[in-house]
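ok trying again, last paste got cut off:
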Amino acid sequence: VQLQASGGGLVQAGGSRRLSCVASGRTFSINYMGWFRQAPGKEHEFVAAIRWSGASTYYTDSVKGRFTISRDNAKNTVYLIMNSLKPEDTAVYYCAASSIPILEKYYRPGSYEYWGQGTLVTVSS
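nice, full thing came through this time. structure:
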C-alpha cells in the first residue's frame, strides 16, 4: 500500500484546512487508516483514525469537535477536515494505514504498517 498525503499549507488561527490521503496498491487489505502529526522537537502524536469499512472514528481529545476524519472508499481517499485551527496544531501531518484489525490500539503509531510522506500545516497566530 502506498499513501500520498496532500493539502498542507499556511493558515491563520481560526481557519480551516482539508488534508487528503490517497491510497494505492493493495487497498483491499486496508483495515484502519489514521492521521498522526509531529511538531518540531516532539514525537508522533495520534490525531484521528477511521475504520476502512463501517462508521467507527476516533479522535485525540485536543481535536474533538474541531477535526473530522472521513473516507471515500470509491476514491481510496481519507480526509482530515480541520476547523478552528490553533497555532498548537502546527505540525507535519502523516497519514497511515493498517491491514490488521488494530481495534483499541488505533492511537499507536506502531499499529500501522504503511505511512505517507507527510504534509506540513502551519497555523499562524
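cool. The chain has a mean pLDDT of 95. The two ends are 37 Å apart (CA to CA).
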